[in-house]
Design goal:
The chain is mostly helical and 111 residues long. The protein has 5 helices and no strands. The protein has one domain.
Length: 111
Amino acid sequence: METTIIELLAACLKSSLGYNWYMANLNDLDGLERLLRPLRHELSVELADALLRLKADEEVQARYDELASKNTEGVLTADERRELESLVRGNSILSLLKAQARATPGPRIAR
């Protein structure tokens, strides 16, 4: 049985430390995944590999870690919650793009 992009996305997101599932609307991600599905046939190997290497820089990762920790402690301000939700949405979209990159035909970099 073929693994769906949503299953790949769920596995990627589940492995992300501090990710809060309630912050992403998976129905929205499902629609986006369907819209992005043709992308796997259009990506060059080079672009697919670049997407797979893409990750947050140290400053963004440190801020995400700080916000996730404060969220776990229940001490986020409203502005911090919006910032964390924005980072989570961005990560969700990036995960969808990476899933499409993994499904692109051709040789892949080591993952």
